[in-house]
Amino acid sequence: MSEIPSLEPLASGGYRTRIRFGEERRRFRILIQDLELAKVRALVLVTMGETIGAAGLEPELGAGLLTKAGAAADDNELQKILATLAKIAGGVKVKRITEDPRSAWTVRELGEAWTNGTLAKEYPDQIRVPRGDDKNISRLARHIYPVIGSVRVSAVTLADVESVMASLTGKRPTQAKLVPLTRRTIALTLNRLLNIAVYPLKLRASSPIPKGLVPKAGKRRAMTYLYPDEDRALLGCSPIPIRERLLYGFLVREGCRVSEALGLRWSDLDLKRGAVRLDKNKTDDPRAWALTPGRSSGAGDLRRRAR
Q: What are the pLDDT digits (tens) for 232-251?
């Protein structure tokens, strides 16, 4: 009986092992998180390597079969690969199918390709780099990757998705219970990621997320605001840099988000007519409006001092 090769844990999840086939000896990934199941899969790869070597198959063909076997999502897929190997080893000519390397992508690999802009460059009409990218990266890294990051995208099930959502309710020892709105944003991030896998990447036929799984936002908290005297005191506080006070005054009067204000360019402003145009924003809702004069709270004096 063949010996189980040593398994090296991967930071992204799963394991890596070295398999000999013919004169070759290479490392292959096993996309299984459970150690005992990974050992069983490693033993299958060892047996495949012996068959490949005995049949004298060309190295790249053998390596391709071992790669697919290591990344196989379930026993049915693995059995198909083993059947193909048996046919080839028996002398049957099998038509080669060029497989997209992305078909073996894990959730983490797909998420990183999405947030770093790689997919947006390839599919500009279907995929854009998500706004608030740092937040998306944080949601994926903190809440999604630790649970299903090493799972193959094509193998993600409803149970996997439910595991992610359960981890947000404080059921994991290291995870605090998150409010409904936060759980909703995480669920929407995962939903978008799996929809990308469906189209345009075509890594799976459908998303495992059913209607109704994404939590409702719940009641919003009361918004805070500055009273006129507080606004006047803030804008007149000289220890605060003038550019920061201008930003605070603009936000109070125009009601836009900080990210929207920081993203404005001179071309978005019409100072002659006192108007501003905001084409790009978080909600994809382009809008334009007249700038608030802001005379009642001393903003005019602040503008003159800033010149």
A: 999 999 999 999 999 998 88
Percent of the chain having pLDDT more than 70?
A: 86
Task: Name the one residue in this structure whose structure tokens are 């998705």.
Answer: 161
Confidence of residue 294 (pLDDT cuts 50, 70, 90): low
Q: Do residues 291 and 276 lie in contact, with contact meaning Cβ atoms separated by under 8 Å?
A: yes
What mean pLDDT do residues 261-273 have? 85
CB contact at 8 A, 92 and 135: no
Q: On the CB side of 254, how many CA atoms lie within 13 Å of its CA? A: 25
pTM for the model: 0.57
203-238 tens-digit pLDDT: 888 899 998 898 887 666 677 778 889 989 999 999
